[in-house]
Amino acid sequence: MLSVIIPAYNVEKYIKRCIDSVLNQSLKKIEIIIIDDGSKDKTSDICLEISTKNSNIKYKKVENSGCSAARNLGILMSTNKYIAFLDSDDWVDQDMYEEMIKVAEKNDSDIVICGFKKLNEEKKLLSTVKILEKKNKDDYIDCKTEWFSSPCNKIYKRDLILKNNIKFLTNVYTGEDMFFNFKSLFFSKKISSINEAYYNYFMNESSVSNNYKNRTDIYIVIDELVKFYKENNVYQENINKVRECFKYHGIIYPFDVLQKMSENKVKDWKRFYLKIKEEIGKFKYLETIDIKICYYYRIFRLKMMWLKRYKKMLMAK
């Protein structure tokens, strides 16, 4: 009924919790596919031991190629009607997949989406993200929301993914999830949602998604999104979605990262700032008054922060 794909790389501290949360699901017809992306710690030993004890687990170790390549391989190895993705430092509530499959079968949905919880190292709840049911498919294509980008709070019909050759981009480390969902939701006919937070997202400060060095990859993703809509002859109908993606993921989020870099005194923040400005300049064809205001406001806010810091330094002398 369901194939759960888990890419794993150097997660010896968390991988057992992740796998156990799937083994303990109330839904029993689950195929677990673990793609070990060349781990160098004890992740491989843990996965191998668990897989030998559970016949429904497929374990494969490959050379390190990144999470996207691991997920793409997992899709090819899957055999069930539905596919789910699970990050190796996260875990799922016991009834998550059963409830999502019920909705998928009842509504003949290509995709089912649920909410998620954000937790820290001590499993302290930081926030909860839920999703209300939408009136039509187009309303779910909303990259401003926290629930849109991740593939892990969703299940997909395997046929939807394979027939439309939907894959994760392998040349980026930020935004590949979002692009995968833009394509999946575009090709889907029916999307459903459950207003329950079944997925547990561990806020791991050292994970790839929190790595400053990967943030400019988002501009590659935006460019790919433009190409995708043009190739399917629907660019003009979806230009506002592209602009929305550019505004939130190409301007607001990178400038938020810049502010954090500056506050944390990360030495490369000036180089990152210049790179962001250069990349944003390539998308002038997406500019609107709203986007311009957003961009210059972010620059102003950043410079005001620098000015305040400079003033404090002068006063301290």
Automatic annotation (TrEMBL):
It comes from the Bacteria. Its EC number is 2.4.-.-. Keywords: Glycosyltransferase, Transferase. GO terms for molecular function: glycosyltransferase activity. Gene3D superfamilies: Spore Coat Polysaccharide Biosynthesis Protein SpsA, Chain A (3.90.550.10). InterPro entries: Glyco_trans_2-like, Nucleotide-diphossugar_trans. Residues 3-161 form the Glycosyltransferase 2-like domain. This is Glycosyltransferase family 2 protein. It comes from Candidatus Cetobacterium colombiensis.
